[in-house]
Amino acid sequence: MSLHFSRNQFQLFNKDLLFLQRLFGTKTDRHGRRPTKARQPTSPQSPRSSETSLPGAPDSRLARVQLAAINALLELETESDSLLSRDPHLSTLSHHLATLKTLVASLRKSTHHHSLRSFLTRRASTQSLSRLAGSIESEIQAWIDRESLDTLTKALKQQDNEEELFKLLSQFEDRVLRGFDRELQDLVLKTRVFNLIESCLCDSNSSNRVREHCAFVIVGLIKFNKDVFVGQVLMGATIKALLTMASPNSIRVLCSLVRIIKSPLVDEIEFNRQIPKIISLLNWDDSEMRVMGFGCVLEIGYFGRKDIRADID
Questions:
Q1: Which pTM does this prediction carry?
Q2: DSSP letters along 156-217, please?
Q3: Percent of the chain whose predicted confidence (pLDDT) is above 70
Q4: Cβ-contact 293, 279 below 8 angstroms
């Protein structure tokens, strides 16, 4: 048997987790760490009693919405326990969902008692649930990343559906621009998706629309982690491909790369004798290309060494 959950289903579960974290406390990462944050005073008009955020609290609209979010995750745990356990990548998620079921049962049981012990149990359980929600969210996001990268790499290799490839590239760009994630970086390196994106950028048979979007994704990867992906840009054919395309967007990407990488990229451009080609953009009939070319010359002049500035003059 195989796992039959779509990316959209897991994204819905992730939304439920974000809701749980808002109800039960501060968001945590997959290791249960909670960021320090200044405590805000509680308004007398909107008391935040732990009783109102417990599953099964009577006559509470908040509790009913909360219960729906919890039930969605418990349904995932109930219907797919064996399937999750069989997938090595999802065994941790399966364990977290089983723990969630135990915690929710403990919370529901404690709501029917008003002793000090029940109160302490509720407090401990809600804090544990907050940490657990963060861990489950991270595991689901890791699953989404694996599935997304697998789909993207296949689409880059086949290139038989331009609209689908464009959509996948946009999703991947949005993902890397959310900020650094070590596990996502490991997946990117393992799947060699950078090389596939660069190959698509250099492929003259691909449409300019797709090639330009590949270029924007490369900029996103540089922002994601300069230390890892700058070297691949300097050693690869990205700059040559951008100048060969010679479109406003390709030159815009080149300007961004010069601005981010600075003198190492300027040195590489000068070493490959590509500065005259950039300067020649100033003679184009297309006014937008002249503007982009002028901006690129300014970026190179600003970040380049004195000898490169002399070549420009």
A1: 0.69
A2: HHH---HHHHHHHHHHHHHHHTT---HHHHHHHHHHTHHHHHHHHHH-TTS-HHHHHHHHHH
A3: 61
A4: yes
